[in-house]
Specification:
- With 106 residues, the chain is mostly helical.
- It contains five helices and two strands, in the order αααβαβα.
- The chain has a two-stranded parallel ribbon.
- It is flat and about 50 Å long.
- The N and C termini lie far apart (46 Å).
Length: 106
């Protein structure tokens, strides 16, 4: 857990400011496939919320959703996922899988 997370209760801070992120409610209605990238050491959006988002999407009937979690040891935090080794390959694989599914359906 990061120093910021230990000093600030992020969940309470969000509640206190009245900010609402209802992504878990609207994501199942998104008609395109969804790729969620989340670092375990994200000190802005706790990793457990990324896991909950994927779960809510699946429970809401969304089939084309994938969560990629990056270990805290990578030090990517909230802003540096673009630096993740293998990210281009991950994106390519996601797109190729979708193209393969379209080919078999259409």
């Amino acid at each position: 857990s990061s120093l910021i997370s230990r000093v600030l209760d992020i969940d309470q801070l969000i509640l206190d400011t009245g900010v609402e992120f209802a992504t878990d409610r609207w994501l199942p209605a998104v008609r395109c496939p969804v790729l969620i990238l989340h670092a375990e050491d994200d000190n802005i959006v706790p990793h457990r919320l990324g896991l909950a988002l994927e779960e809510a999407a699946r429970e809401g009937g969304k089939q084309e959703v994938r969560l990629v979690s990056y270990p805290a040891a990578m030090g990517l935090g909230h802003r540096d996922i673009y630096k993740a080794p293998g990210l281009p390959e991950e994106l390519q694989a996601f797109m190729e899988r979708l193209q393969g599914e379209q080919t078999t359906q259409g």
